[in-house]
C-alpha cells in the first residue's frame, strides 16, 4: 500500500513538470533540416570554401619555379588540382650578365586557352591583383 | 576523383603534357588512372631541337607526379558540367 505523502509527491511531480515538456529539444522539424542543408552548401567553413567562391571567376595563382597564372577557374579539388580557362602564364627568370654582373629580370608570357594545373605546384590562389 | 573522371571523358583527344622538367609532349590521350598517371599515344616532343630526348618514342607512360600542366582542347568538356561537379565535390569533401 502506497503511503499518502509519496503519492502526493508523485502527483506533484507530474502536474508541475508536465507543462514544461515543450522545453525539451525534441526532434528537429523537416524545415529546420532543409535550412541547415542549404546553409551547409553556401557556408564558408574552411579555406577550400573560399576558393569555391571564386568558381567561374578570374583568379591569380602563384606556382613553384617563379611562375604565375591568371585565368578563369573552372574546376578544382582538395589537392588544388585546377582547370583554368583563358590562362596567361608568366615565367620570371633572373639572368646575370657575365661582364657587368647585373641581374636581368625577365618575364616570359604565354597564353593557353584551357589548362589543367597539378595541385602540387600551387603555392597560393587569390582573386586577381589589380595593378593600377 | 573529379579530375580522374574528367580525363576519362577526354580519352582519344589530343593533349600537350608539360612536365616539371620543362619537357612538353604532345599526343593522344590513351588512358588515365586515379593518380592521374597518363598514357599517351603517337607522341611528339614539342620543341624537338631543345629536347632531343624522345625522338623515336611514339607511346609513353607519364607518372602523374611529374606533370606540371596538361594543355587541353578548348572544346574538351562542357564547362557547366565541370562547375557542377566541382561544387558537389567541394561539398562532399
From TrEMBL, chain A:
Q: Does the keyword RNA-binding apply?
A: yes
InterPro entries in the cross-refs:
Lsm3, LSM_dom_sf, Sm, Sm-like_LSM3, Sm_dom_euk/arc
Identify the residues that the record assigns to the Sm domain, covering every copy: 46-131
The record, for Gene3D superfamilies, names: 2.30.30.100
Name used for this protein in its record: Sm-like protein LSM3A
Which terms are listed as keywords in the entry?
Membrane, mRNA processing, mRNA splicing, Nucleus, Ribonucleoprotein, RNA-binding, Spliceosome, Transmembrane, Transmembrane helix
Q: Which GO terms describe its molecular function?
A: RNA binding
CDD domains linked to this entry:
LSm3
Which biological process terms from the Gene Ontology are attached to this UniProt entry? mRNA splicing, via spliceosome
Q: What is its main location?
A: nucleus
User: Which sequence ranges are marked TM in the entry?
Assistant: 6-26
Query: Which compartment or compartments is the protein found in?
Result: Nucleus
Task: Tell me yes or no: is Transmembrane helix among this UniProt entry's keywords.
Answer: yes
Question: Could you tell me which PANTHER family the record lists for this protein?
Answer: U6 SNRNA-ASSOCIATED SM-LIKE PROTEIN LSM3 (PTHR13110)
Q: State the organism of origin.
A: Durio zibethinus
| Role of this protein | Component of LSM protein complexes, which are involved in RNA processing. Component of the cytoplasmic LSM1-LSM7 complex which is involved in mRNA degradation by promoting decapping and leading to accurate 5'-3' mRNA decay. The cytoplasmic LSM1-LSM7 complex regulates developmental gene expression by the decapping of specific development-related transcripts. Component of the nuclear LSM2-LSM8 complex which is involved splicing nuclear mRNAs.
Ranked from the top, the taxonomy reads: Eukaryota, Viridiplantae, Streptophyta, Embryophyta, Tracheophyta
Superkingdom assignment: Eukaryota
List the GO terms this entry assigns under cellular component, sorted alphabetically. Lsm2-8 complex; spliceosomal complex
Q: Which family does it belong to?
A: Belongs to the snRNP Sm proteins family.
UniProtKB/TrEMBL annotation, chain B:
GO annotations of cellular component type: catalytic step 2 spliceosome; Lsm1-7-Pat1 complex; P-body; precatalytic spliceosome; U4/U6 x U5 tri-snRNP complex; U6 snRNP
- Which SMART domains does the record associate with it? Sm
Q: Which GO terms describe its molecular function?
A: RNA binding
Q: Which UniProt keywords apply?
A: mRNA processing, mRNA splicing, Nucleus, Ribonucleoprotein, RNA-binding, Spliceosome
Q: Per the database record, which ranges form the Sm domain?
A: 2-76
The record's Gene Ontology biological-process terms are: mRNA splicing, via spliceosome
Where does the record place it? Nucleus
What's the short name of a Pfam family annotated to this entry?
A: LSM
InterPro entries in the cross-refs: LSM_dom_sf, Sm, Sm_dom_euk/arc, U6_snRNA_Lsm2
Q: Which CDD domains match?
A: LSm2
Give the domain of life: Eukaryota
Q: Which family does it belong to?
A: Belongs to the snRNP Sm proteins family.
Q: What does this protein do?
A: Component of LSM protein complexes, which are involved in RNA processing.
The identity of this protein, by name, is Sm-like protein LSM2
